[in-house]
């Protein structure tokens, strides 16, 4: 039985929308940027070095896109590999575990897509900060927002384990 949830599809679509928003933001902002732009933001309060405007500013959305593709490819290959090994294991051992492998796979897909959303938000925040800094509208990264995204990203790991334990306990009650 294949475990399918609508939430995985919604999280995937949210990732695509964030990726699209990043590209649209950079394509829209690039012609409007001044002649000198920052390419990197220092979080330690050091002075920002500005360079001549070039297409290297698109390194941020390109990296964001590659990161999303790598997440998807690694997840897809892991799911395919696990699916083949599960088919052979199902024929050898008919006794199910406390939580089905399909549910574990679904939960991993959901957590990876959720983590990718926060990575996308971090990239979008960096890009927005670069654009605003180039125009002189802001001093750089909003550190509270930036570090809160990183903390939330780190909290996703215990969240996955917590949901898995809840599912195991609910399964044992049946």
Provide an overview of this structure:
With about 170 residues, this protein is mainly alpha-helical. It has a domain at about 60-90 and about 100-174. The chain is about 70% helix and about 5% strand. It has four helices and two strands; from the N terminus they run H-E-E-H-H-H. The chain has helices at about 5-30, 60-90, 100-135, 145-174; strands at about 35-40, 50. Strands 1-2 form a two-stranded antiparallel ribbon. Helix 1 (about 5-30) runs antiparallel to helix 2. The longest helix has about 35 residues, at about 100-135. The radius of gyration is 21 Å and the shape is elongated. Residues about 90-95 have low confidence and may be disordered.
Topology diagram in text:
Elements: H1 6-29, E1 36-38, E2 50-52, H2 59-92, H3 101-135, H4 143-173
Antiparallel strand pairs: 1-2
Helix pairs in contact: 1-2, 1-3, 2-3, 3-4
């Amino acid at each position: 039985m294949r475990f399918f949830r609508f939430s995985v599809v919604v999280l995937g679509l949210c990732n695509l929308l964030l990726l699209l928003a990043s590209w649209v933001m950079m394509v829209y902002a690039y012609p409007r940027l001044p002649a000198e732009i920052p390419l990197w933001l220092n979080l330690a309060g050091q002075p920002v070095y500005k360079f001549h405007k070039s297409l290297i500013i698109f390194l941020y959305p390109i990296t964001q896109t590659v990161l999303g593709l790598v997440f998807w490819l690694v997840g897809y290959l892991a799911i395919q590999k696990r699916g083949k090994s599960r088919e052979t294991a199902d024929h050898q051992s008919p006794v199910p575990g406390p939580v089905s492998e399909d549910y574990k796979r679904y939960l991993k897909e959901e957590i990876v897509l959720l983590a990718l959303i926060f990575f996308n938000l971090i990239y979008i925040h960096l890009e927005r900060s670069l654009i605003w800094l180039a125009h002189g509208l802001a001093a750089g990264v909003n550190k509270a927002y930036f570090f809160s995204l990183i903390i939330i990203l780190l909290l996703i790991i215990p969240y996955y384990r917590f949901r898995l334990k809840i599912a195991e306990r609910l399964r044992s009650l049946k």
